[in-house]
Design brief:
Shape: globular
Largest sheet: 4 strands, antiparallel
CATH architecture: Roll
Strand content: 25-35%
Radius of gyration: 12 Å
Number of domains: 1
CATH class: Alpha Beta
CATH topology: Chitinase A, domain 3
Oligomer: single chain
Order of helices and strands: EHHEHEE
Distance between the termini: 9 Å
Length: about 90
């Protein structure tokens, strides 16, 4: 069974999510952007969610984490919690 580690930024609107993605793609540090903007407690760890397996996160999140490109900022991904930017840091 696959395992992945990822970090994310959770915000309320798609527009805010897209703005933060633009900042990161222009060179802003993902962890710093997470600390300043994310509404998830993981922001204190730069958005780091640790390691997890399929089914441990919400469906929309899992679909991206277990199929997306490792090391790339992905999203916005809409879930019941809001809009996420995701970065898969490792998958094995």
């Amino acid at each position: 069974m696959a395992t992945a580690s990822a970090r994310h930024i959770l915000v309320a609107t798609e527009a805010e999510c897209l703005q933060l993605k633009t900042e990161i793609e222009a060179g802003a540090d993902f962890a710093e952007v997470a600390l300043k903007n994310s509404s998830c407690p993981s922001r204190m760890r730069g958005g780091d969610l640790g390691s997890f397996r399929p089914g441990q996160m919400v469906k929309e999140f899992d679909e991206v984490v277990f199929s997306g490109e490792v090391g790339k900022v992905l999203g916005p991904v809409k879930t019941q919690f809001g809009f996420h930017l995701l970065e898969i840091t490792k998958r094995w």
